[in-house]
Amino acid sequence: MFAWADNTYQNGKIVKWENGTYATGSKKHPTNNWVVYQLQGADNSTYSIARKKETKPEMQAGDAVQYEMKKSNEITVIRANGKKQTYQVVGHTAAPTPAAVPPQ
Question: Of residues 41 and 99, which shows the higher confidence score?
């Protein structure tokens, strides 16, 4: 899909985006806005990711991306146009595990 990324990147997809806020610690401006994306990973896990300087969506639902976990709270995303950005992981939902089928 993307020829420029090395093997440490995995394929993913932006499922949706929504506006969110984060605390600044300032009394004058206690919160700021940011865009929170839902990134579905290769293992069907969903990551909520955001970047403080991104207040308008730069990715849309259905966009194919490649991603790499940098730290437990950082993820690097390469979009289809080749632009690379580091996002903060603000939430994670593990892939659902299939229910065990009792033996018959």
Answer: 41
Which CA distances in Å does 60 have to 2, 5, 30, 56? 18, 21, 28, 11
Question: Who's near 103: CB < 8 A, 6+ residues apart?
Answer: none
Q: DSSP of 61-98, one letter per residue?
A: TT-EEEEEEEETTEEEEEETTS-EEEEEEEEEEPPPPP
C-alpha separations of 91 from 28, 34, 38, 52, 104 in Å? 27, 14, 9, 15, 39
Task: Write down the domain spans for the chain.
Answer: 16-93
Read off the pLDDT of residues 39-75 as tens digits, 9 standing for 90 and up: 999 888 999 999 998 999 999 999 999 999 988 899 9
Would you give the DSSP letter of residue 53? T
Tokens representing 81 are: 């146009």
- Say what the pTM is: 0.81
Whether 31 and 23 have beta carbons less than 8 Å apart is answered as yes
